[in-house]
Write a structure and sequence with these properties.
By secondary structure, the protein is an alpha/beta fold. The chain has 13 helices and 15 strands. The chain is elongated and about 185 Å long.
Length: 485
Amino acid sequence: MAWDKAEERGQGSSEAGEPLSVSEAVATAKASVSSIPQLVVCGEVTGFRGPNARSGHCYFQVKDDSSAMDCIVWRGTYAKSGVALRDGLEVQLVGSFDVYAGTGRLSFVARSLSVAGEGLLRQQVAELARRLEREGLMADARKRPIPRFCTRVAVVTSMSGSVIDDVKRTLRRRNPLVEIQVAGCSVQGPGAPESIIHALSVAASAHPDAILLVRGGGSFEDLMTFNDESLARAVAACPVPVVCGIGHEPDTSICDMVSDRRCSTPTAAAESVAPAMDEIEAQISDRSDRLVRALSREVEARSAMLDSSSRAARRAMDAYLAGKESGVAALASRRCLVDPTSMIDDRTNDLLLIEQRLHDAIPRSLGRTRRLLDDDGIRLAEVGGRMLRPYVAVVGKAAAELDALSPLKVLGRGYAIARDSAGHVVSHASDVHEGDGLDVLLGSGHVLATVTASIGVAEETDGAVADTPQDTKSDARPSTSPEGR
């Protein structure tokens, strides 16, 4: 290492008188400085440069009454500290010394950074203000309007100071009609925030138009009471609008930020809720004049509007009556009203004309209808004949076949049909016996017969049928005939 080499050469140079190079000398100094333990240093910032546009590091000096030293705060350390460095700020640095090898310059490298003394208090107040602002307690939309003419005002302040007298004197001078109520409290020292919170609740219970939270000027530490978080939240949550007048013009507290109205001094706060009587009288006179002028203009406008409406209504009524008069005249001139019997005469004439046209139209209509019927009858006869011709031929042919197959045709050729008493056709001689009655159907008419004998049918010999005649005493001659169809 360079330090090891420098140390060896340094020891050698002491003994042999050999000189060191610049880098070796700087390395020797750096090694010596590195052995110094971590330090906590307080001082005032001066010559602040940063954050660097490219690296984000901060370079500055801290000084006291007799000395100053160079300091470096790296970008990450500066971002985590939350401190906005500026010249004149009292800071507390925790870090160690280091020697930059390039220039041999000694610097204090801070590992942590915080504000010291009053600066720390201001940092805490700023952090609280940012937190309450994020919650919306400082938003203008949340703040309530203060009545322009307050008739009852509650004052929250110390009873031992001159502030309460200044406020009362200002209110009585500007508007003696304002009713003043006082809620005493402690405005400085331990327990002051709780005392003010209690006084606010007492003042709000009287339901005034506004509450004045005031105190005189003082140092930053004296006004720290009004930077208390619980007091700031109580001011924001107060059911009555709160007007703050704390300290002097440059002084701004958390209560000022969360109140409904902030005034620079207690006197200004009193003046803001109590307009002067001459101002009120001037405003009343001005508003009276404006009201009179506005009413005069309104009356004139309404009068002109009424005249215009009257003329328009008159014209409309005249037009309406003229229209009705014309309608009545038109109705009076109608023939039905002048001569009521004319309607009956007109209807009678119309009926006579209709009757005449009807008498003339009926013969012509009947003649046209008759001709149409004759033409349709001729066409129907022709079409019917053509349509029936095929069926007539079929029916004739079927009749001829039926006639040829009819049993009556067979009977007409000399055959007969014999039926027994049950009406069954006798087709074989063995079906009847002697003494049975027969009904014999002839070609024309029928006869009743009694069987006296039956003749059997001989067996076929040599292809011929031989009948065996038997005697019969019936007057009816036997015959064979086909069964009736």
